[in-house]
Specification:
Length: 422
């Protein structure tokens, strides 16, 4: 631990200097004693989880690490927390570090929650008096009731997370390092954790965390580091780095999906779940997007084209779409009833256009229906058989399945007074 003022005068809490981390992995397993004798000891190969990573976390800021699975985020957190040592390079802290990494790490399974609070406190270098002072607050926040006197080995993963978080944040950290662990708690607990993190942040605690929730990273972090295969791809203000990461992920996904589409042009349409009399037959659903990659993106322009074949003349049919989250209830069901389509015969298509797609990122199921104008006669109906992948948009992150197009307006008593005196 040392005081760290950068050459430009910034007050630095954690410095990661040219850090690389190598793990040694066994090439194969020897499953029996005989194999061990016959083939000798296992051979190993080196795996570099991090390569030449340089970054500085300024005191009092909230810092996020993002990147694909296995990109090295947790390894970097562990190096920052002093749990791993770098193979080369150095990590320096200026402040007391408290880390919440793997579930249950730092807990003794046979000891009660109560005893583990004292054990963890002393590992963090807290005098017993300080732990006594924080004890009731830790207990209250963890909300474990009578379980606090049971050995932690009987705890659920959510209970581990509650106790771990409560200890880590109440023992007066100067630098708090948190891995994705909070994801295991229930929604109420997560909300309290984030409120608490915001409070620590306002008190000037440096917070470093890993999350796959880009919305959370963008909301909470000042700066972000993006790792890819152990290398630092970008480091900078949260909004910019997350935006660049999202664009990269979207580009990769577009390439992947384009490949799928080339193999089977109607890949998105499974016709097994179909009913109707067949005078009009739905041939396919095309996604026509405004962006470069041709992908559906939240908040951006999108046209869904229903291609059809009318086997005999049909007067004024109604086309309908319904949108379902992958494992959820219908969220919208637009139809063309307000439009007179005339008599349809032969092949054609109907476009449903959105200036700003309100569906949030994820995999959606789309139903396509064609009925008469009273909806009683079904010509064709494909129930949740088309797939639509929506990518994260550039707008501010919002929870839930859809983006509502509302606006916010603030009025305060002070404003009202101001108005009156004008
Ligand atoms: N103790 C270890 N021994 C061997 N390899 C390891 C060890 N810890 C991590 N690795 C490897 O290092 C790479 C980076 O792992 P790490 O857990 O840091 O990634 P991550 O970005 O946190 O991934 P995720 O988003 O999936 O949690 C992975 O390939 C992982 O298998």
């Amino acid at each position: 631990m040392n005081d760290a003022l950068a050459t430009d005068g910034r007050d630095i809490a954690v410095t990661v200097d040219s850090v690389s981390k190598r793990f040694r992995l066994a090439n194969e397993r020897r499953t029996s004693l005989k194999e061990l004798f016959v083939r000798g000891r296992s051979s190993y190969h080196d795996f570099w989880a991090l390569r030449d990573v340089d970054l500085q976390v300024e005191r009092g800021t909230t810092y996020g690490l993002i990147g694909h699975n296995g990109s090295g985020k947790s390894t970097l957190l562990k190096l920052m927390a002093g749990i791993h040592r770098p193979t080369s390079g150095s990590v320096e802290h200026a402040g007391r570090v408290s880390a919440l990494l793997e579930l249950g790490a730092g807990f003794h399974p046979e000891l009660s929650g109560r005893d583990n609070i004292y054990l963890n406190g002393s590992i963090l270098g807290m005098p017993k008096k300080k732990i006594d002072e924080a004890f009731d607050r830790i207990l209250e926040f963890a909300g474990l009731g009578d379980f606090i006197d049971s050995p932690v080995k009987v705890y659920s993963s959510g209970m581990y997370a509650r106790l771990g978080f409560s200890i880590a944040v109440h023992l007066d950290p100067e630098i708090l390092i948190v891995d994705e662990i909070l994801a295991v708690g229930d929604e109420d607990f997560q909300r309290r954790c984030f409120d608490y993190l915001a409070e620590l942040r306002s008190r000037g605690v440096t917070i470093i965390f890993v999350s796959h929730s880009l919305a959370l990273v963008q909301t909470m972090c000042d700066r972000v580091a993006w790792l890819d295969h152990g290398r630092l791809v970008a480091e900078g203000p949260a909004i910019e780095v997350v935006d660049a990461y999202v664009r990269d992920v979207n580009k990769r996904e577009s390439t992947r999906l384009e490949r799928t589409h080339t193999v089977t042009p109607d890949a998105g349409l499974d016709t097994s779940n179909r009913k109707g009399t067949g005078e009009i037959e739905v041939l396919g659903l095309d996604v026509i997007a405004g962006d470069d990659g041709g992908m559906a993106v939240t908040g951006e322009e999108l046209t869904l084209r229903v291609r059809f074949r009318a086997h005999s003349p049909v007067e004024n049919p109604v086309f309908a779409l319904a949108f379902y989250p992958e494992h959820g209830q219908k969220v919208a069901g637009p139809n063309s009833v307000s439009m007179d389509l005339g008599v349809l015969e032969g092949d054609g298509h109907v476009d449903y256009h959105l200036d700003r797609l309100p569906l949030q990122h994820g995999h959606w199921k789309v139903s396509i229906g064609v009925t008469d104008s009273t909806y009683t006669h079904i010509y064709d109906h494909l129930d949740r058989t088309a797939s639509l992948t929506v990518q994260t948009g550039r707008g501010p992150a919002q929870g839930g399945d859809v983006v509502l197009p509302g606006t916010w307006r603030l009025s305060t008593v002070a404003d009202a007074t101001l108005e009156e005196t004008r």
